[in-house]
Amino acid sequence: MITVLAGGTGSVKIVRGFVAQDSKVNVITNVGDNYWMYGLYVCPDIDTIVYGLADLLDQEKGWGIKKDTFNFLRQMEVFGEETWFRIGDRDAATNLLRTNMLKNGKNLSDITKWMCKKFAVTANVIPVTDNTIETRITTNKGEIHLQEYWVKYRGMDKVEGIQYIGSDKARPNPEAINAIHDADIVILAPGNPLTSIGPMLQIKGIRKELSKIKRKVVAISPLIGDNAISGPAAKYMQAAGIESNAYGLAKMYSDVCSNIIVDTKDKALVKKIQSLDMRVFETKITMKNKLAEDALANFILKQVHV
Amino acid sequence: MITVLAGGTGSVKIVRGFVAQDSKVNVITNVGDNYWMYGLYVCPDIDTIVYGLADLLDQEKGWGIKKDTFNFLRQMEVFGEETWFRIGDRDAATNLLRTNMLKNGKNLSDITKWMCKKFAVTANVIPVTDNTIETRITTNKGEIHLQEYWVKYRGMDKVEGIQYIGSDKARPNPEAINAIHDADIVILAPGNPLTSIGPMLQIKGIRKELSKIKRKVVAISPLIGDNAISGPAAKYMQAAGIESNAYGLAKMYSDVCSNIIVDTKDKALVKKIQSLDMRVFETKITMKNKLAEDALANFILKQVHV
Known about the structure:
Chain A is α/β, with parallel strands linked by helices.
């Protein structure tokens, strides 16, 4: 059994890769970027994973449903509402039904299971917690929700800090704890280490459970050299005082993880990472197509004996 | 000042006709066909009037926004939800914002004003009441909401009765009372007399106010001969024990209305209607285009001296 801790856009490819290799995959998903918009509860990371596994994801954008239309949003614009958060028309239905279920007392775990069933997704997608965690970014202009920072303001301002509001009180999802405990191998997907994987590691129970089995935990670097393959990972790492390369990542994960996959281009960092008592595996970590997703997942399952 | 009591599809044309003639038009709208769907509060008659006046109405269907897409609904179908009530993607935005405002304590009158403002509709659209009235149809198979009867089951079953749940306790909108009281002329639009105009006449305060100024009230027949120009008016009238022609309509309205516009084809009914102490005006009542809408409104304003 494989358990993957995943964010959204940066993580979905390798999640798909593992699901293609193994029939028993758990995906523990980040909830720190969930957001309320028009009274709808939007869960970008959960939806990206579910849509991705259902082969419905808009691959080009990395979020939303492919070929979705945006007339709901266009009408919101007519009404003078904010439209920076791009909810598609089909996507709006997902968000509305989820919100209705939440208001009727269902928890996010059950709702996510319902969603997987409706989309015929066989992987077990588990929100890391049913409590609220909110990833907030401090910039020189003030503190705002991650979605506002990255989507609304397009990540323009200097990041001065990152907070995970609610993470200290969030109860880890018992199913997530079991999925870590029972797994043959646990993967930290190449999502943003601060805003996708980070919020999950901030939950004490998750961190503790991972640290217990850290020999089985394999992180995949989202960076090549000093830069992220996509997204603002490097920027957030620098803001958090972390070296923005595979070594910085390894150091950040070293309490919960004993294995790291780095790009062959990062050969120069291998020794330094090994000094953290971590095993380092070099391969091609960019995944430009389905073949590359499968190849990376397969490499990990074949080469990294945990 | 002109005040029109209006339903949706059958009423919007003449409403548009009057708005083209006069800058001060009040439209008192039916709420008996409002319906909850996916947790959204849908107001078909209000929306048909507002979309119609904003030149956004899908003229062919007679409801919804023209050129709207239906991907929200398509996704609802994927989720196994009922989709017989056709909410378009842009329409979903209207319904969501209205529902949010209701839940935040706004009443339907204020929400409708907000909507008119957003769509640059200058007519004063007034829900007949801010309370709930539900028009329900009794068939041989049981009692169901009007929308279910007409949209979900396509009006297949025999109608045995019509109820207006809540109409006895509904407080008339004070603005509607004023709009009737202050009007130079009050029009009963050619909406369905049982399910569009009927629910409004069931509110005691509305009925009383109309009866006080019945000499100023002009009804437009939605029937030619024994048949409705469109929709199930004849069927409902028969079920209610009312003759399904302009005479039956006149009799039904005779407490609240002293003038009726009938089609020239209904010449044979004129004397019988006059015996109800009503003035009868004959003209062409079908409105196939904008010119015909204007012509009928103009005929009434010029010929019917109230």
